[in-house]
Amino acid sequence: MKIPVFPLLLLAAITVFAPSATPAEQRRPLTFEDMMKMKRLGDTAVSPDGKWLLYDATDVDLDKNTRTSHLWLQAIHGGEPRALFAWTQGEGGGRFSPDGSEILFTSSRDGGEQIWLASFDTSAGIVGEPHRLTSLSTEADGAIWSPTGRQIVFTSAVYPDCPAAPSPGADACNKNRDDDAANSKVKAKIFTHLLYRHWNAFTGDKHSHLFLINTDGSGLRDLNPGDTHDVPPFSLGGGGAYAISPDGRELAFEENLDAEPAISTNADIFTLDLTNGFARPVRVSTSLGGDFSPAYSSDGKWLAWRSQERPGYESDRFRLVVYNRAKKTIKEPLVNFDRWVDEFAWTSDSKRIYFVDGNSGEAELRVLAIDGMVGDNVSFDGEYSDLHPVGDVLYATRMTVRQPSEVVRLDFDRSKSTQGKVSQITHLNDALLAQLDLASLESFWFPAPDRVGKAKKLLVQGFLIRPPAFDEKKKYPVKFLIHGGPQGAWGDSWSYRWNAELFAANGYVVVMVNPRGSTGYGQAFVDGVNGDWGGKPFLDLMRGLDYAEQHYPFIDKDRECALGASYGGYMANWVEGHTGRFKCIVSHDGMFNPEAAYGSTEELWFNEWEFKGHPWDYYGKPDSKNPFRKWSPALSAKNFHTPMLVVHGQLDYRLDVSQGFDLFTTLQRLGVPSKMLYFPDEGHWVLKPQNSRLWYATVNGWVDEYLKQ
Questions:
Q1: What is the pLDDT of residue 366?
Q2: Fewer CB within 10 Å, N side or C side of the chain?
Q3: Could you tell me which residues come within 8 angstroms of residue 662 by beta carbon, excluding any fewer than 6 positions away?
Q4: Those residues with Cβ within 8 angstroms of residue 87's Cβ, 6 or more apart along the chain or in another chain
Q5: Can you tell me the distance from the alpha carbon of 333 to that of 296, in angstroms, rounded to the nearest whole number?
Q6: How far apart (Å, rounded) are the C-alpha atoms in residues 453 and 528?
């Protein structure tokens, strides 16, 4: 059943609280140091009575090269935020107890990460002296309250062959194994299975398990004893992988039981009876693809989660499904809805679900009524996440290209479908942002010569950001950014790794295009990149830049540089061999030789889906029939001429550093002007503050060298 779409809020009706602005002529460009001074919002929580906001915010110390998270408490209806503890080691992951009388959080104050509890006076907003709840040698993380308020579920990585808690000696066994490994003079590893390393670390013999503990510290129990799989499985998003029923008697969680996780995306949803120590998990999901983010309705009748149909495809459409716990039936209420459900939350009356889906570079907040399955729609500028319904009010985090994440309150007037209000609750960076000249994100659309699915005409979207102190009469050089994924998207959002405002700050127009493969335009558009990495996506990118050159006269088309990371790095490598329109190129962690990358990556499901099989499936066939070679930038090396900066990290196991070395060696031997920025201590992303400073300085310096006159 297709959802009826009704405007619930319109942009023109939105009110956002903002600081008094600095006069435009007094504002200045954003600097890297400004970005490092900004507080970075993390986890958020709202007290059950709706009076208090608890959140963690990360502070960056550039000189010390550290990032430290601290907990803050703020009255929602007025009052200044205050730091709760500000311990040197930091703290985060704050959660109110179901009755609001306590908070839990995690901190490594006494060494490893552990769970802490503190009393909370909701009438006065006073937090008591915290005490440590756990003391596991394997540490504790991801803590959530049971709705009863008497128990807590959390994760810890343990050796499955050690005795499982509550068995005596369980933690001692794990500690001894860790100590032996740390003290051994032999650091060699023996592998008997794949996924022996993942993202930026070797996986080893330990596996994440879920644990249950009473709030008085008693009753510690491993809920996955002896399990040799990670529970929950690895997720870049983190959080939302397990939930407890309203009566506290059942746990729902994600787990992937496939024999070879390196080729599988098929996480399932399992439930476990918490009242029976001998109970075994029961699988309730039925999809062949991945199932994620279980969440119980407040009345306990329903369990919802995000589901994918196609196995092995991490970018299949994320559908919302609802499980009737009494009837043990599953239904998909959003039939014919062709967008991803990115996040969702039940309302307190269990009759509706709020969910967010990406759409054309923005976030759409939708309301789904379980009884009758009627949907309402509202589009906002920016990107929303971390949803907290309280009555008819929804709290969430919001970011735009001009502002890092802040907590906002969304009030809905259901009697007037075109009216509503968004109020900013936190103001972490207002004073600094008010000093900066930050341009809004401009959108443009251009036609593609073909079509996708049933569409009669295909339009592709691009975005543009103008530089500070913009002068319409001047000509500006261009930084052409290519996003990763490839199933990702540019949009109205803030980033600390690839910040479009910072790229524009030193006098550049920033152009970004969402080519085939991008999310937010329907699943057929997403699938358009599969097996066609250098085909239609490349043409979309070039046509988008053509359109921008033709319609924005301030663009200097003779001074353009292409920059990309991950799939964007692959595309930068492809661009190097297939067009001479750019004066320079930046390739960060990009695939250069797909055949070689297949044997050195870890998430094999990705390569096998995107390149339609294994390299040996195509041996003896012409390159035109072999996706690993047809779309290999390495095979176009004879056409390399554009100066290129290569960036790669030693700890990048998604795209092994050998891809970067191979590319740089090729450029050097061809005599192409080139430079390599190598990070021995970074993975797929550059995260350490001083490394990030070097990254921006090197990347922007490379572009300036070839584009600044």
A1: 83
A2: C
A3: 592, 593, 596, 634
A4: 70, 107, 109
A5: 16
A6: 10
Q: Kindly list the domain boundaries of the chain, sorted by start residue.
A: 1-30+352-438, 442-707
Please tell me the pTM assigned to this model.
0.94
DSSP element (H, E) containing 513: strand 509-514
Pairing of strands 242-244, 250-255: antiparallel
pLDDT value, residue 362: 83
Rounded CA-CA distance 303/650 in Å is: 42
| Rounded distance between C-alpha atoms, residue 264 and residue 255, angstroms | 12
Tokens of 492: 């109205």
* Helices 567-578/536-551 angle, 10° precision: 80
Instruction: Give me the residues paired with residue 102 across strands.
Output: 119
Q: Rounded to whole angstroms, what are the CA distances from 39 to 106, 428, 429, 592?
A: 19, 6, 7, 36
Look at residues 367, 446, 496 and name the one whose alpha carbon lies nearest to residue 34: 496
Return the pLDDT at 2: 38
Instruction: Report the DSSP beta bridge partners of residue 246.
Output: none
3-class secondary structure, 357: strand
3-state secondary structure of 603: coil
Q: What Cα–Cα distance (Å) separates residue 673 from each residue in 196, 227, 354, 641, 664?
A: 37, 52, 52, 8, 10
**Residue 377 neighbours by CB distance under 10 Å:** 17
CA pair distance 348, 394, nearest whole angstrom: 11
pLDDT computed for residue 3 by the predictor: 36
Cis peptide leading into 232, omega within 30 of 0? yes
Q: Nearest Cα to 283, choosing from 312, 319, 307, 247?
A: 307
3-class secondary structure, 321: strand
SS3 content of the chain, % helix, strand, coil (to 5): 20, 35, 50
* Res 587: pLDDT: 98
Round to whole Å and give the CA distance between 639 and 670: 10
- What pLDDT score was predicted for residue 413? 60
CA distance 615 to 601: 13
CATH architecture assignment, domain 442-707: 3-Layer(aba) Sandwich (3.40)
Q: Which of the residues in the chain have pLDDT under 70?
A: 1-21, 24, 237-239, 371-381, 412-420, 453-455, 709
DSSP string, 59-94: EEETTTTEEEEEEEEEETTS---EES---TT-EEEE
Local structure of 105: helix, strand or coil: strand
Distances 701 to 534, 673, 697 between C-alpha atoms, Å: 28, 14, 6
Please classify residue 77 by burial: count the beta carbons closer than 10 Å to its beta carbon, then call 0-12 exposed, 13-18 middle and 19+ buried: exposed
Q: Residue 388: which of 39, 81, 50 has the closest Cα?
A: 50
Buried b (16+ CB within 10 A) or exposed e, 413-448: eeeeeebbbbebbbbbbeeebeebbbbebeebebeb
Distance separating alpha carbons of residues 656 and 662, to the nearest angstrom: 10
Structure tokens at 61: 């110390």
Q: Which two tokens stand for residue 175?
A: 């500690």
Amino acid 414: pLDDT: 56
Backbone torsions φ then ψ of 661, nearest 5 degrees: -65, -40
How far CA 460 is from CA of 57, 114, 360, 446, 537, in Å, comes to: 36, 48, 9, 5, 10
CB atoms within 10 A of CB 4: 10
Amino acid occupying residue 54: L
Q: List beta partners, residue 70.
A: 57
| Nearest-angstrom CA–CA distance, 413 and 408 | 16
> Which CA distances in Å does 77 have to 39, 222, 387, 389, 424?
22, 41, 18, 16, 11
- Distance in Å from the first CA to the final CA of the chain: 58
